[in-house]
Amino acid sequence: MFSADDFHPLPLPRPDEPTAAAQAEADTLLAAAKAEAKKIRETAVAEAQGLRTRALTSANNDATQIREAAKAETAKRQKRDDNLDTWSARAVIAGAVGLTASGEFELARMVGFDGGVAWLLPLVIDVYVIQAFRRHRDVMQAIGLTIAANVIYHLADAGLFGVDPSNDGKADPKWWLIAIVASVASLILWRMHTITAPAKAKREPNQRRHDRQQATAAAPVLATAPRQEPPAKSAPTAPPIGDSDTAKSDRQNERQNGTSGAAKKATEAPAKKTAAVAKKAPAKSRQKPVAEKAPRRSMAEWVALAEPIFHAEFKRLKRNPTASEFADAISRAGHGRPSDSSAKNIRTEILDRAELPALND
Q1: pLDDT (mean) for 250-275
Q2: Would residue 349 count as lying in a domain?
Q3: Domain span at 160
Q4: Would you call 360 helix, strand, or coil by DSSP?
Q5: Is 279 within a domain?
Q6: Helix, strand, or coil here: 292?
Q7: What is the pLDDT of residues 50-104, one digit of tens each?
Q8: Of 159, 177, 195, which residue sits at a domain end?
Q9: Rounded to whole angstroms, how far apart are CA atoms 259 and 249?
Q10: CB atoms within 10 A of CB 309
Q11: What is the pTM of this model?
């Protein structure tokens, strides 16, 4: 038989062992989940960055292609417009030259030039007109000459001006009409020499006036400089008989004070006049610096040079610059200063060809 001492109770598990095991397993799962989530997040960020970079690159390429296409289209349209303007002007010039040349040729024949050389008169007149247009000089004189030649011929051909009727039915030109027509070629020769001669370097009138005023202002200062003279020594005078020493001393002091006062006034008067002239001289010599005059250029050249200057001024002023401000900006850029009216025309041409740039606050 078994006794009570033979039975021993089994050891029971401590209640905190399952909890610790579960906590350890949960920590392991949490760490694995965090690592997986971090990996997924990094992968998503990398993919998003790649997509953004590819999208921006594609957008920039598309924008560049659009700008280049627009620029090419603008250049093509500008070239087409320039060609149209050029050929239209040439067509008008050719038609006008043909019409006026016939009258000029017949006028030369009328006053006695042989047919073999009469064609030289319309040649010199028309070449003079073309050169006047190209150089923008003598335009009115050249056009006036062609008008006068054709009007005189048609009036003379109708017997209304500068001719005398003859017995054979033909009109004989008067002596002064022959003299005028014969001198046209020499007159054109002189004017062609004038408009084709290279420009001489001339000093600006303002600069000459400025130099003259400086010389005038400096001259009085030199001319009116007071001359320092040593004080004259007065001859000693004998005191009157019977005067006391005190009376003699008083009379000597009065004579010395009178002499020194007169000398002081004589010295101060030229000095004050010199100071006044020297003070007024700089005011006359102040002159506004003369801006360099812009050379002659075509409108297309002006637009190509001044367009970036205009956009820079527009961004700086945050408004459309005035004609004077635009002309000053062109002068500061080193292209010379055009007139305000020319700057206004250049600005209008730029605004017609492109839109105003965007202003960023």
Answers
A1: 54
A2: yes
A3: 93-195
A4: coil
A5: no
A6: coil
A7: 999 999 999 999 999 999 999 999 999 999 999 998 899 889 888 888 889 999 9
A8: 195
A9: 16
A10: 19
A11: 0.40
